[in-house]
Amino acid sequence: MSRASGLWVVVMLLSTASAFAATPPRRAGEIVVTRGTVQATDGAPVAYEIGTLYVPENRQVPGSRLIGVGFARIRARTASDAPPVFWLPGGPGLAVLDAFDGTSEAARSRLQSWLGYRDTADLVVIEQRGYSERGEKLVAPSPAWPRDRAFTAQDDIDDALRRVDTARAAHPDKDLAGYTIAACADDVDDLRRALGYPRISLFGGSFGSQWSFAVMRSHPDIVTRAVLASIEPLDFGYDMPSALLATMQRIAFEADRDAGLAPYLPQGGLMAAIDALRERFSRQPITVDLRDGGAPVVIGLADFQASLLAQAGTPDTWPAFVLALYHGHYEAWAREVAAGRQASDYKLIGPLIDTSLGITPQREYQLRHDPAGAYVGSGGFAPYLAAASRWPTPDLGDDYRRLRPIDTPVLMVHGDWDTSTPLDNMQAQLPYLRNGRAIVIHRGGHDGVFYQLRDEPAARAAVHHFLRTGEFTNLPTEVTLPLPRFAVPEFPAPAP
User: How far apart (Å, rounded) are the C-alpha atoms in residues 117 and 110?
Assistant: First the structure.
């Protein structure tokens, strides 16, 4: 190295050191904000703020390191007495602030939906600790699974236990005990204080609704009202198999009456096809050679149960998926199974929050003895329960998660075709709302409030009116969506 180049390195190092020295240490509860503009659908520029909230990683440990949580704010079009709407994303592990980059159609759509709040109140979006665009995204590796044997329920449990070790190994410098839903609720309160709001409204779907219940549990005096969708009560982090089966039966009822699917249906309809498949995979796995240079894919009952539920999340294609398997067309499914067994990274925030929130003994007993588990398996709860004591996040206790009365005005919206958070979740929560209303969306899936009400302008307006005033005015009790056009299998129907 020449003397001149060595001098340049010294200058650069001194400049970098000076820059760091000029940045004061962050404090818990502090925010750092930048400003920008985005374009609304009418072409008008809209100002926004985006920033980072600094919070203790573990709120129970004095002197815990600070971590960043991303947030954004869009001001109301005109000054309003309505409390700001805090929009809480789902997941756990849904980062949403890329909406301001407009890098995907989903991001652009999300941003335009946020701009719709400008006539209601300020909108504040906050992400989750441990998975934030402007903080840290904690992930760990998950190894590949072999293709030459069927995946089993015990494999699922063994994988969950291994994930605890890989998480700790991937992040030895992190205090993973701090990533609970209670800490996420405290983050909301910290942001409220930092932005200068005395009280707020909440808007959340799926895990965002559960997070909202946590805020109302931990900080009941700061929440004026809430609009929640795809409801997930605090004790309902693991869905009841019978509720999931009932949702699939509602979809099957409509599919059995579809003219395009009729030539493919066995006697007894779609549920009879599912029963036949359960029996088929219970007897023995199947082997599919994908001719891709890899080992054949061996698929068993646990694979079928997981795929049956996952595919039901898209009701328009789910019947065709079931009927393809019933008639022995496995190739497309086998490719999906093979892809799912490849090595990948997983988000830590999911198991950290879910195992800490836990479940009451009564609901766990129901889960383990629900006969509908024969249809959907135990993968939605058994792996989490097996690994719960090994994850570092503390169990929050039955008193925290048990259903109890809520005085805050709450409007709930839920689709009866939702196979991620079944309708029973909302029906269980509703009696505990002393000032609550519910809207059932017939044929509605796991979608947000305003997406499900996209063709109901009066209902959308009534929801915004509730957010502004707290008045349950002109709200429907139910909305029926059009019947979807069901896809048909990609092979000729069998001869009668």
Answer: 12
CA 48 to chain CA centroid, Å, is 25
Contact 43, 60 (CB under 8 A): no
Q: What are phi and psi of 224, to 5 degrees?
A: -80, -45
| CB within 8 Å of 460: residues ≥ 6 apart | 450, 453, 454
Which tokens is 479 given? 């909305």
Across the range 15-21, mean pLDDT stands at 39
Per-residue pLDDT reduced to its tens digit, 471-486: 999 999 999 999 999 9
Structure-token match 């089966």, residue found: 245
The CA distance from 322 to 337, in Å, is: 15
Residues paired with 411 in a beta bridge = 227, 437
**CA–CA separation, 433 and 439 (whole Å):** 14
In one-letter notation, the amino acid at residue 58 is N
Mean pLDDT of the chain: 93
457 upstream amide cis, omega within 30 of 0: no
Smallest Cα–Cα separation from 66: which of 24, 113, 12, 117?
24
Instruction: Report the candidate in 416, 460, 386 with the shortest Cα–Cα distance to residue 155.
Output: 386
Matching residue, tokens 């374009």: 39
pLDDT in tens, 383-441: 999 999 999 999 999 999 999 999 999 999 999 999 999 999 999 999 999 999 999 99
Q: What residues pair up with 439 in beta bridges, in sequence order? A: 413
Angle at 363 between CA 361 and CA 364, to 5 degrees: 60
Who contacts 13 (Cβ-Cβ below 8 Å, separation ≥6)?
none
What DSSP element (H or E) covers 358? none
Q: What is the dihedral of CA 242, 246, 248, 249, to 10 degrees?
A: 130
Contact (Cβ atoms closer than 8 angstroms) between residue 112 and residue 40: yes
Asked if 228 contacts 412 with a C-beta cutoff of 8 angstroms, the reply is yes
pLDDT in tens, 99-142: 888 667 877 888 888 999 999 999 999 999 999 989 999 999 99
CA 200/CA 183 separation, integer angstroms: 18
Tokens standing for 52?
A: 């980072």
**What domains can be seen in the chain, in order of their start residue?**
31-138+178-239+399-480 (3.40.50.1820)
DSSP assignment string, 211-257 = HHHHHHHH-GGGEEEEEEES---TT-SS--HHHHHHHHHHHHHHHTT
Report the alpha-carbon distance of residue 496 to residue 197 in Å, rounded.
Answer: 67
Query: What is the DSSP code (8-state) at residue 471?
Result: -
Sign of torsion over alpha carbons 305, 307, 311, 313:
positive
Alpha-carbon distance of 373 to 213, in angstroms, equals 27
**Cβ atoms 364, 402 nearer than 8 A:** no
Q: What are the backbone dihedrals phi and psi of residue 485, each rounded to the nearest 5 degrees, phi first?
A: -85, 105
